[in-house]
Amino acid sequence: MDKCRRTSRTRVAAAVSAVSALGLIVSCGGSDSGGTGGGKKDGTVTITMGLFGVMGFKETGLLDTYMKEHPNVVIKADVAGDEQTYYTALQTHLAAGSGLKDIQGIEIGRAKELSDTQQDKFVDLAGVAGTDHFLPWKQSQVTTADKKVIGLGTDIGPMAVCYRKDLFEQAGLPTDREEVAELWEGDWSKYVDAGKRFKQNSKADKVAFMDTSSGLFNAMIYGNSQQFYDKEGELIYATNPAVKDAWKLASEAATSGLTAKLRQFQPGWDPGLANGTFATAVCPAWMLAHISEKAGPANKGKWDVAKAPKGANWGGSFLGVMEKSPVKKEAQELVAWLTAPEQQAYLFKEIGNFPSSQTALGLPEVVDAKSDYFSGAPIGKIFGAAAQEIPDEQVLGRKDGTIKDIFSQGLTLIEAQNKSPEQAWKTTDKRIGKAVG
Amino acid sequence: MTTDSIPVRAADAPPETVRMKRGATPSGARRRRLFAHPRAGRQHHAGPLAYILLGIAALFSLFPLYWTMVAASTDNTRVTQTPPPFLPGPHLLENLGKAWQDAALGKAMLNSLIVAGVIALSTVLFATLAGFAFAKLRFKGRNILLMLVIGTMLVPPQLGVVPLFMMMTELGLGQKLPAVIFPTLVSAVGVFFMRQYLSEALPDELVEAGRVDGAHSLRIFWSIVLPIARPPMAVLFMITFVHAWNDFFWPFIVLDMSNPTVPVALTQLSAGYVRDQSLIMAGALLGTLPLLAMFIIFGRQIVGGIMQGAVKG
Amino acid sequence: MAISTSTPSDGAPGTAPSAGTGTGGDGQRRSTLLHRLDVRGAPYAFVAPFFVVFAAFSFYPLIYTSWISLHRVELSTLNLMEWVGFDNYTALWDDDRFWNALLNTITIGVLSTVPQLLMALGLAHLLNYRLRGSTFFRVAALTPYATSVGAAALVFTMLFERDFGMINWMLSLFGVENIDWENNKWAAQTAISSIVIWRWTGYNALLYLAAMQAIPRDRYEAAAIDGASRWQQFLMVTVPGIRSTIVFTIVLSTIGATQLFGEPLIFGQGPNGITGGADNQYQTLGLLLYEEGWKNYQMGRAATVAWAMFLLLIVVFVVQRVVQRVAARKA
């Protein structure tokens, strides 16, 4: 009995020490509180990055290249898949002043909010050497009222229409990309008309003309310089004719059964690409890599890219450096390098992220780029031309990203839940009120 | 039966009490059969129909897990075709490897292990301490305090997430593991569970004898209470561990993707830019494996533990 | 919950007279003092950790929630609190989303709890037979309990996929058209409920089984002598015999149901998860709380939803107590 007690006592002692040991691990694990994780030690510079989605720096090995060229630099990049999650975390980090990285990615839909409310947390990048090569409107999106620049542009999202040649053919539509572009030249409503023709003549069962009406909606609104906000920061979505027209046409497409009722970048969308359940998708340049990967080698050569009715910019991001960072200078150099023309051109070639650098747009590897997967389409020319059509002034608003999501959901209401466009608009309106309140 | 000294009216008593009555024997000796009642249950042999129905139930329980494995072992094209695959494909290891990297599951598992381990250990320790005090020590306000413990069961901690989040952010604990651990260091159910066990399994004479020997309370706790309390402590540990490992709401709010627990890391697989379905399933499989292994090894003990004490967070 | 707090017989060890008698001396006196301090103080020290942690991380936040709910607080500027009185409450009262979420929480709660407990009862009855391989069946029934919400919801989301999911494929064998599980309100709520049912049925069955095994066999024998069939025995002996456990599981499942969060969040995938579908068709109160706080970044409004959830719980408990009392009076 006594012996048994003693063993158990040692065990308890062991358990107690285990608790305290674990507690120690835990508290040590949080040793970087307040900092950004980066720093200098023994001649090595560590730079941390917080990224989201497929910005490509890590995925294409650009960061490795940089580290090879700068042996004293170690880069640690965290990539969050979902921008919404990423941004919520960034907000709390900004509020707490901890958990931030040296470099943070900024999505275009958040650019305004950050430059309005958090500008003092970001380093002013206005004077950084060799950064005068961007498209003028790109940098103006992250320039504050007092001319501070909180980020450098990575990519932009000029739009085209990706389509399946084989599906067009069986529906009696042209398949050549020039002729296809002519089908809807200059007017998005012609794109919907083509869809109606497709629907009437298609022999393929269960193949829709487009994946979702929200792609069409986004393409239309981003062709204008104002979407949800005006320059004074007032909400104008309810009266903005650009938004109204886009809503009308997108809901027309939805109610006439032209869509596959899929949500872009959600799981049902991929198999739709692979199995060919829709014939077109409005595609910003960065979407091409995704389509080719998910549609798979079996569909190589079936897809092609045609010019969109009107130029527009969907998406694009920035890289900012945090004021708190102990390695500000090194981080700025890294950001400048990552957004330099050569690197932008490289990213375009690798994953299709279209350069926001004017200089890069003139580089031969961009201008002459062709896509094997998309039937040899001259994507450099197509997206380059689209980029020229993007309005020179683009007004951003604080809750752009959130409002865009709410509109997508509103269109889903019509598309998949048989709500009338009027009902869906009402709901959307109410939700925006809550989201900005 | 030696539990008659405690008056319990079976019909009105809560299940814990009833079960504890059977679960405890004063000597603390381990019983062979955890849940056999000499005069109860197990009246009939099962007929073929019962086996068929149980087989169906087992199938429903296990099939989703089996299918997770199947989906994780195919590639993306196969898994999105109809009819869906029913047999494993050749890509299991490859997908597991990719998912391991993509969702940062290695870090997530270590985090979960730390979180669940610390919570389970501290819950067991504090519950046994408090349970012993409530069961065997006399002090002013004991009954009121015990009622208070029971009352706290009705307050789900999730309701305080907003201030808790603000607190943790202010303390600089946002996105850190202590933020997940602190609020769940103790459990009211655990305290009550240990109290019920000890008030029946621990003879007063033993404690008194300890006092006569001049032992102080902590010594009595260590050398007399703990040996006897080991079986329920093990049960409480396992169940708390499972709950802490699977806890979602609060970790999801306070942690982020750079420092997640397993359930939080898994959400990353489904949200955002699409990954392969087979990779999502591989991640889900990986995230489930540690507990699954625990259930395969300790299944019998866990089943016994749950039947002994209704502990559910 | 009626939880008995029967205490051990009176001569509890704590009151036992201090042992060391006989020779006096200073050391002796000091140790007696220490001993007395130990006997008096130790119990409080032993229960203190529980109360300290509870007060700091449960009670204080609960109270503070109500204070926050009277303010406008944004996530990015947590230290700026602007007093708004009851505005958040009136806004919540007028908000369709709140009533919708409340209703969804209730319907999903019913859809998940009722079948779950009924099936658990049946399963427990089966497990209560004399079985070969009973351990296997018990462990198998409990396996889903080992699966985290995250993993379970991911798998079920895929099984319920519209275009290539296993469930739609099976239904198509019976000529059923593909169901849009996510967009159709009742389909979505059913699918989400099925995740809950899958995870918790086995667990509840084991609780019932434990209670069933405590029913004295002579009650069955008496019923058999009275000519009761097996089914009648089940209704008249088994079910009343485990009544208190049934009440207990109802209480626990109800608490769980009011806080449903992970299952619908993951089921919706991405932005639809937080809003509980494009039409909020499966948004629960837990999701609404999250949307207000961590998507709209309005912590004051999130705190208001938390309070509403708390009130809901209280109402449920009051109703449950009343029903129980009325039932007891009738019996």
TrEMBL record, chain B:
Location in or out of the cell: Cell membrane
GO cellular component labels: plasma membrane
Annotated region (Disordered), positions in chain: 1-28
Keywords: Cell membrane, Membrane, Transmembrane, Transmembrane helix, Transport
Location of the ABC transmembrane type-1 domain: 109-298
Source taxon at top rank: Bacteria
Gene Ontology process terms (BP): transmembrane transport
InterPro entries cross-referenced by the UniProt entry: MetI-like, MetI-like_sf
Gene3D superfamilies named among the record's database cross-references: MetI-like (1.10.3720.10)
Protein name: Sugar ABC transporter permease
Taxonomic path: Bacteria, Bacillati, Actinomycetota, Actinomycetes, Kitasatosporales
Automatic annotation (TrEMBL), chain C:
Bias (Low complexity): 8-20
Predominant place of localization: membrane
An annotated GO cellular component: plasma membrane
Protein keywords: Cell membrane, Membrane, Transmembrane, Transmembrane helix, Transport
Membrane topology of this protein: Multi-pass membrane protein
Domain ABC transmembrane type-1 residues, every copy: 102-320
Protein name: ABC transporter permease
Origin species: Streptomyces lacrimifluminis
Taxonomic path: Bacteria, Bacillati, Actinomycetota, Actinomycetes, Kitasatosporales
